[in-house]
Amino acid sequence: MTGNSRQSRERIVAGTADLISRRGLNATSIREMAKHAKAPLGSTYHYFPEGKQQLAAEAVRYAGDTVARLLRKELDAGPVAGLGAFLALWRKIVVKSDFRAGCPVLAVSIEEPPTDEIPPAVAAAAEVFDSWENLLAASLREHGVAADQAAQLATLVVAAVEGTVAMCRAKRSTEPLDRTAEQLQALIVGAVRR
Length: 194
Description:
The chain is mostly helical. The protein has a domain at 59-193: Orthogonal Bundle (Tetracycline Repressor, domain 2). Helices cover 78% and strands 0% of the residues. The protein is built from nine helices and no strands. Helix 1 packs across helix 6 (104-110). The longest helix has 25 residues, at 147-171.
């Protein structure tokens, strides 16, 4: 794939992640995804021949990888720094979008799938959540937290932040995120100091 082709494909994936974070997957057509990314509909089908679910799965992975890169970098300074960066990222997203955007990973996770099969985008969301939890848990273990507690805290952090982002959007306020941040930081600091 040429550089321009790669850039066009990445622009479509990033645009789709943004659109899903605002509207959800079921409320978004592939035509709207292409339009939001300022890409011709034909090129969308060219890059994603399996259609909307393929594009959505790649958008979810893209969003997940973006967050994971930030987490990896910040977790080098420890789990408290990683948590702070995770919280700051979501604060920036909800505030910058005037509370219109949330997490595309959560968005595809909570929508009813069209069939009894697990759609590719939902499977990708599960992988992303696992990735974030594993990064957080590994950092906690490296800082002296027992494996079971590290795994539980990591799950709690991801679940609390994802839920809080949804609350921020509904309330059009960062207050839920601020409250959650304070409690999560206290839990992480307490676990690391033991």
